[in-house]
Amino acid sequence: MNEEFPMIVRSFRGRTTAEALAVVRRELGERALIIDTRTISEPGLLGRKVGVEVVAAADPDTARNETELATVGATARSNTVRSGGNRWGAQAAGLATPPADDTPPAEGLSVELAAIRRQLARLASGQAVPAGHLGEDLAAELEAGELPAELLAECDEAVQRAGERLDPTLRRDFLARLLGRHLRCPGALDWANTRSLLMVGPTGVGKTTTIAKLAGHLVLERRRRVALITIDTYRVGAADQLQAYADLLEMPFAIARTPAELGQAAERFADCDNLLIDTAGRSPADAARLHELRGFCRALPGMQVMLAIAATAGRAEFARIVERFSVLPLEHTVVTKLDELAAPGRLYGCLRRHALPLTYVTTGQEVPADFRPASAQEFAALAVRAAA
Ligand SMILES: Nc1nc2c(ncn2[C@@H]2O[C@H](COP(=O)(O)OP(=O)(O)O)[C@@H](O)[C@H]2O)c(=O)[nH]1
Ligand SMILES: [Mg+2]
Which atom from ligand 1 is nearest to the alpha carbon of 336? Predict the structure, then answer.
């Protein structure tokens, strides 16, 4: 998490946008920067309560003194949320940041011309992405990270909306905050109330390794008694790997070939606090296997299901995996192989598009060290290359 973020960022609620904005102005001053607005709906005494949540930022001094929001090198002129564009107009490419005062005019001009040229090239190639407010460098970086075009446009619009009140050096942090809010991160797994966890996912994604990491964490740091079980319906002998971890960690181990066998194993391990259940088998395209797994899900009351998906998966592959495994009640996701991530924007786009409930990430092959709780802010910061 970025403790150093030199701005106050808070969320405010109201029944209407106007009401929420009034609270923002009262608390953070007239010059507060609106980062995001969304409708909220939550259970209340008399049915669902609908309202608006506004996230706003302000310089700490501004919030206290109700003076102008101090953005380096910018003189604030407008009190409205939407600020006017720059001197070239909002649609001009890459010109959102006027050259600093000490930039020789000729150099500033050539930068601008280069930006226009690149934008024209994009238009000509049919990949027009309205990224003129992000600045050429940041837009190019986000594109290189494969942030989907619609999200690039969203970032661009947010920067445009922020206008000159947003210090250019805070652009990445600002966008990370904005994007982070759109991911689902329900928080740490409640191990005290989750006795059994079933790990599913494609072959080779890191399911068994992750189970071993979780087991190590539970035993070493939480002093819980853990048993490991492998569901091995195809008798492919894939249980050996988990058995080796069970031996290493001195944990009881069982193989279950049917839901009934899983139930029996759970009874046998009645003195264990947690049962970590691995699955082995063929490709996720195997519908019969998934149907079979549904049977296993019903074998133990309160069992939770975790999908393992690799950070390196392509967009189409990601969609295919989520679609396949969605026949199971997926309560958790572990994003594996984050250490091999090459396209952070693509990963962010996939996580957001499929609204997966993010619980853990794994970051290497070392057991049990290479895993940690997932953080929406981290995925977003990776996507916009901000400090996490
Ligand atoms: N780089 C990297 N490799 C991993 C990670 N997690 C697992 N692996 C490796 O991925 C390979 C497959 O892991 P495994 O647990 O057997 O996958 P499974 O088939 O889903 O059970 C092994 O070589 C693991 O060491 C990770 O977070 N990062
Ligand atoms: Mg395995």
Answer: 27
